[in-house]
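Q: I'm a student working through a structural biology exercise. My instructor gave each of us a protein and asked us to get a predicted structure, then write a short paragraph describing it. Mine is YbbR-like protein. I'm not confident about reading structure output yet, so if you can add a plain explanation after the tokens, that would really help. Here is the sequence I was given:
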Amino acid sequence: MKSNWQFLVIALILGFYSWYSVSFEQKVNSTVQVRLETTNQPRDLVVREGLISTIDVVVRGPKSLVRSIDSRKIGYSLDLGALKPGENILNFTPDRIPLKGAVEVVEIKPPRIVIQAEEVARKEVPVTVAWTGNLASDWLLKEKLVEPSKVVLRGPRSMVDKVDRLSTQQIKVEGRTPLMFEDAVSLDVPGDMSVEPAKVKTLLVFGPKTREIWIRVPLVLDRDSAKRITDFEPKEVRLHLEAPLRLINEDRLHEQVRAFLRIDPDVDPGRYTLPFQVRLPEHTTLLKTRPEAVEITVRK
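A: Happy to help. First, here is the predicted structure for YbbR-like protein. I'll explain a few features afterward.
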């Protein structure tokens, strides 16, 4: 029992000493930078101007307590629940700054802020593809596709109303004669706005410049078919093609086009009207043939 009384007396003495030290210790002023934390912002409003990230708080208290303040652990909770479109004046009050003990708030700098808020708008806008590259003179973009072709833009109404379309971020196409680019590409969105989805699937298809042309080529027999076909008319055919300019300009198209006859090895002898087949070089399209079929005679 005696030992407990001794500890009690010691505790009372230490408590009195602590109170005395704090109460009569030299008081000092200090400026603490406090981060601003916003709460309850209406979902249909966006802050355009005036919001700051920190405030300076002048505090006063015993020197030891003031020095022990850790600004990283202090935040000012700014309630935006009453925000309305237009100008909003928000005052800072000391009771929202969580300080302990004998430390008090002397001043808050700035004492208030003026916030400009605006209604949030949403709008569906089409997407265009932005790309750059150093293509060969006879090469070009044939097709470009984006999926989805429209996206939903969200942001301040005054900004959203001015946007009629969005572009992808610039795509750099490598090579002089590329064939295709395919990837998910981010959109180029102006500041203070967001978009859904943030990326679109983009497809670019390239190919040579082409021109339509009529050419005349001999009609030849497939090796196996030649053993059974005794006669065919006509001996040459005309082809309407869409072909690369380079092949046409370099006069190499005829040598790469082949028209030939092929029959089923089990076909019975007789006379037939059959279509012929055409083999074309890369990037060449067959548009029309004259004639569309030929007369052949098949022997036993």
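A: Here are two points you could use in your paragraph. The CA atoms of residues 151 and 197 lie 6 Å apart. The helical segments are 2-24, 63-67, 157-160, 245-249, 253-256. It's a good idea to check both against the output above yourself.
Q: Great, thank you!
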